[in-house]
Write a structure and sequence with these properties.
Shape: elongated
Number of domains: 2
Largest sheet: none
Number of helices: 4
Distance between the termini: 114 Å
Length: 139
Amino acid sequence: MSFVEKVKNIIEGINRKIRKIRHSDQKTKRNWLILSTTIAMILIIGLWVWYINFTVSGISDINKESNSSENNDVETGIDKPEAVNVFIRGFVVIKNVITQKIKRASSEVKFLIQKTKDSFNNVKEYTPNASSSIPFESQ
């Protein structure tokens, strides 16, 4: 059996399986959808992580040649960047940025609250004089 015939047999088997799934009940269709989607996601994320490792290690090799990454490796304790380390560093950076923005926003809110309190404390209460006329007096 040649390679082309093997490929044709595999494709025919896949077509038969798809026809069988099409004629099955909704629960079976949903289960196959979930399974195929999960497998596709795992494959795509796996290829993506491999690509990031490949790209980051290429960048790391360039940095090692120029000796510019020595300080970064000493500071972080990571010799070779990998996808997980990149994600961890990214998470730490995002967490720090969010924390700074929350602190800044809370200090601005505190400032506005204090400013509002001060403006209410400086308001003089209105007390009508005997000479002031009341527009809607009952007679």
